[in-house]
Please model this.
Amino acid sequence: MSAAFSKRVDAALADPILKIAVERTAGTAEAKRAIAVDAFAQFEDARTRAAAIKDHVVAHLGYYLEQFEAAATSAGAHVHYARTADEACAIVIGICKAAGARTVARSKSMMGEEIGLPHALAEAGIGRVETDLAEHIIQLADERPSHIVWPAMHKTSEQVSALFKQHHALPHSEETIPAMAESARRHLRQGMLGADVGISGANFLIADSGAVCTVTNEGNAELSLVPPRVHIVTAGIEKLVPSMGHAVQLLRLLARSATGATLTQYTTFYTGPKRAADPDGPDAMHIVLIDNGRSAMREDGLAEMLRCIRCGACMNHCVVFRQIGGHAYGGTYPGPMGAVLTPALDGRAASRDLPNACTLNGKCQEVCPVKIPLPTLLRGWREKSWREGLEPATMRQGIAAWAWVAQRPRLYRLAVRAAIFAIRRFGRGWITALPLAAGWTAHRDLPAPDAESFMSRYARGER
Amino acid sequence: MTLGAPRPRVALFVTCLVDLIRPRIGFAAIRALEAAGCAVVVPAGQTCCGQPALNSGARAEATAIARRTIALLEGHDAVVVPSGSCAATIRVHYPELFEHDPEWLARAEAVAAHTYEIMAYLDEVRGWRPDTALSGTATYHDSCSGLRELGIKAQPRRLLNHVEGLSLMPLKGAETCCGFGGTFCVKYPAISNAIATEKAAAIDASGADLLLAGDLGCLMNMAGKLHREGSPVRAFHAIEVIAGMGDGPAIGEAS
Model:
């Protein structure tokens, strides 16, 4: 385990408040999703179709990108392409500067986090108002999101209350969630209505109409994207779907998988900027289509990962995530999907642990609405690390030596005999401390082996 | 089982953990298979299915072990394994290792097609029911690989329901991973411990006398945690109880 990962894990495991906070949100999500899935008889068929839709688009990305660009352009939007995170940020900052923007209102977007947009805006001296309630909390606390659906899931309401009292001009006086939400509402409305530019991500890009779809439960996207003069969308190229009908099929799975709701409170399709007859809307709409490693993922055996619709079900159901929370993963995306994406986005030197820190129990794949074979993809990263010699030397030599012996039965029997003899020197029955298995005996007892192996007893005729 | 029907020739792949730690699971497997009308053979050259290499990303090592294990297990009516994860390695993952090697792929698929987790084999293929007895209460943990890669869920419970005097108590989160994960538990011991701690608490809360499961690795993890925490719950591989060997020493009890 790398020192950095180990440090983050230890900090997370030692934090009792984090455990409570994660359990409250992920536990509730798990229970509500189960109810929603039970009530949706076609769930399995819907998953199969959803996976097929995404696979089709990913296999024909060029075609749908061109179709989307043409449709969005004819609706009056400007379409930009960015190969990297830096290019994407430069395009966004350029548009903001050209519009003379002093502040932007941002509607929660993991793509914005992925490309480092908050940092880029700060560097450019542009004020940023995070309008999603949880992102607002994160901004006040100067932290990073710990979950892709609930960025502030690691914080308790008590901690949020203190933050609001410190930062809001007219904070809540009653210690209730509605009073706190009202405090955030008073604070955020000003920011949304005073922004020059609204920036969002996209849940879906509709190829045949050029529309951009966002989903929220707070209505903050609508309020931060319609009043400002300019609307900028940052979206991964894999967000494309052929038509509105396909988006709706995916929407049926998205909210159920994320929160257990049938649909989000707000599902909005934005097609171009304000038209002549429209009562409101931005004067200009810019859509930045971002690759940032996605084309490479498609070619490198990670095409199935591009199905992901960012629902968070994999992490909500992950035994590891439930123990260590999102920050311990160290990347933009946590949990099983993050353990697949982070090595591709941030490089394996910084994230070698992530594909290994997984029990391969398969629960994530079982709940994934688009059937991403997450354990298989995680195994794929392990194989790549192994081939390229990134695993620790002791592990490599240990596995190689063991595998060599395992192909030589006579030698293997001798090794088993030796192991039994060695282990039994530390005890019969339960062993409480074993030097070479300290990782095991630090936390649990180890049953000592019987005096003689099965194969040896069987060979002597025992039945 | 029709009288006069030929006895299937079943190869028992005992698994490296059972061989090393708890041979009585292997003998219980033989006892149950014979009771179900099988002629059991134990191929002498068997070692490990290669799962530690496979899950560590050591594909070349895993493939080499798979080749010799396939060669060893060919030519039987069935291969039976007292572990969901080792059975899944042979059934699901061996063919994946040979996707670019048609000759070995065919051999891997042929072995995979008749490889079974033992309780699935006894229940689904043999349609057998035990006539053994053990008085007490037990709770059952669904080990992940067996559950999700092989669909092992109802089979052990159907067999255990036929053990006279044994009553099964529900386990909250029975399908939640116990934190073992093979090499995971020693590579990331603190995370593994946090998961195992919650599992042990759930097992204790079930109120059962016995913890049963189908994989020795998971059982060692859960039983080891329960014992460390002073829980009175005793643990057995389910096949031991099914074969009528649930009255002997539990996991970790000196024999």
About this structure: Chain B has a mean pLDDT of 97. The radius of gyration of chain B is 18 Å. The beta strands of chain B are 9-12, 39-41, 78-81, 115-117, 133-140, 164-169, 210-213, 234-237. The longest strand of chain B covers residues 133-140.
